[in-house]
Write a structure and sequence with these properties.
Elements: H1 10-14, H2 17-26, E1 30-32, E2 37-40, H3 43-51, E3 55-56, H4 78-85, H5 95-104, H6 109-132, E4 135-137, H7 138-143, H8 145-155, H9 165-173, H10 182-208, H11 214-223, H12 230-260, H13 263-271, H14 273-287, E5 293-298, E6 302-304, E7 307-309, E8 314-318, H15 319-322, H16 357-374, E9 379-380, E10 399-401
Parallel strand pairs: 2-8
Antiparallel strand pairs: 1-2, 3-5, 4-10, 5-8, 6-7, 9-10
Length: 402
């Protein structure tokens, strides 16, 4: 059954959900030889394993590569792995909670609430520009610049430097796909080197002349001896940028394509945006999940559905499949913007639950709300094309007209 899982196939990437349905029906765990992973398709198992401390985002806090039966990464990829492996998403206790505790102060519900006027101002400006142009690429004109601007402002990235961020992020995130080709790895390494050098210089400037931004706050924590190394600071900033906008960009653009492909649901949302928008945001995150797969290493033997999965294995938690599981969601393949019971796993669970979830929800509700209000006749100008990526699922562009 794992043969159904073919992320190299454009047809599968375009619509993986029928294959997911078959995987769920056939069992709880399936070994996929091409990626050397155990595929976990059901919601209950995905949710449980996200919280299971016998699994980890890394194994290097307990084992060497050799002890774990894994080949060390290529030396040429070292800049990417240094950058990636010091971010809290890929760390385990005690390092993960230490860094998360420092960063989480910037993402409390109260702090995010204080950002609301900024998010509204930025969203209104971007939507105004789209409307003034009579339409255009919604992804490039609204979906991308809003979350990038918000996280850049939080970090204190100067406006003139912000165009650098999205290309670096896109190149680095290419390494999160399954079996990335050599050219993708080369771009990720180059982006890692350039982004690291940029942040080292910015950190040096902020140390001399601190501001009210998050980078300055993390430097202050470092200087107070709260055990945040400079590499951890750099990796955290990159992670906040990448995680702080990739899923939001893809949910915005993909969400509008979903809405425009479901005119009855879109009409209901346009008729009652204030009443439906909160549940609509959750449903759009569930219906076409922006992060389809999340990987974990098996640190101690586990059993899933009677199948032994030994230490040293890697599991692929299929978020997109879990979010369409009929054991949890009524008529899961139907878009229902008023869905009340919606325990989707799009934002993760356990200690690695998305730190920026309140900010993501604010950005999504704001941008969708502004577009519903200011562009009530928004419609597709051309059928969009998907990126070839499977893990981070998104569109190349979304051309609309008013």
């Amino acid at each position: 059954m794992a043969a159904l899982f073919d992320p190299s196939s454009p047809a599968f990437v375009a619509d993986p959900y029928p294959a997911f349905a078959q995987l769920r029906a056939e069992g709880r765990a399936h070994y996929n030889a091409p990626t050397r992973q155990w595929l976990i398709p059901r919601h209950a198992d995905v949710s449980a394993l996200l919280r299971d401390r016998r699994l980890g985002r890394t194994y290097l806090h307990r084992f060497t590569h050799e002890e774990f039966g894994r080949t060390p990464p290529l030396a040429a990829h070292e800049p990417f792995h240094t950058l990636n492996d010091h971010g809290m998403l890929d760390l385990e206790p005690p390092d993960h909670p230490r860094i998360r505790r420092l960063v989480s102060k910037a993402f409390t519900p109260r702090t995010v609430e204080q950002l609301a006027p900024t998010v509204h101002r930025l969203a209104a400006k971007l939507v105004d520009e789209l409307c003034a142009a009579g339409g255009g690429d919604l992804l490039a004109m609204v979906a991308e610049p809003l979350p990038v601007a918000v996280i850049a402002e939080m970090l204190g990235i100067p406006p003139a430097d912000r165009p650098l961020l999205r290309p670096w992020s896109a190149d680095i995130c290419g390494m999160y796909e399954l079996n990335p080709p050599a050219a993708v790895a080369e771009r990720a390494v180059r982006a890692s080197v350039e982004f690291t050098a940029y942040l080292r210089e910015l950190i040096a400037e902020r140390r001399k002349d601190p501001g009210s931004d998050l980078i300055s706050a993390l430097i202050a924590a470092h200087d107070r001896g709260e055990r945040l190394s400079e590499q951890e600071l750099i990796s955290t900033c990159v992670l906040l940028l990448n995680a702080g906008h990739e899923a939001t960009v893809n949910t915005t653009a993909g969400g509008w394509w979903t809405l425009l492909s479901n005119p009855g649901q879109l009409a209901a949302l346009r008729a009652d945006p204030e009443g439906l928008l909160p549940t609509a945001v959750e449903e759009l995150m569930r219906y076409d999940t922006p992060l389809q797969l999340f990987e974990r290493w098996v640190l101690d033997d586990i059993e899933v559905g009677g199948i032994e999965i030994p230490r040293g294995s890697e599991v692929a938690l299929l978020f997109g499949s879990a979010n369409r599981d009929p054991a949890v969601f009524d008529r899961p393949d139907r878009l229902d913007l008023g869905r009340k019971d919606n325990p989707h796993v799009t934002l993760g669970a356990g200690i690695h639950y998305c730190l920026g979830a309140p900010l993501a929800r604010l950005e999504l509700a704001t941008s969708f709300g502004e577009l519903l209000r200011r562009a009530p006749g928004l419609r597709l100008a051309a059928e969009p094309e998907r990126k070839p990526n499977f893990v981070i699922r998104g569109l190349k562009e979304l051309l609309v007209e008013l």
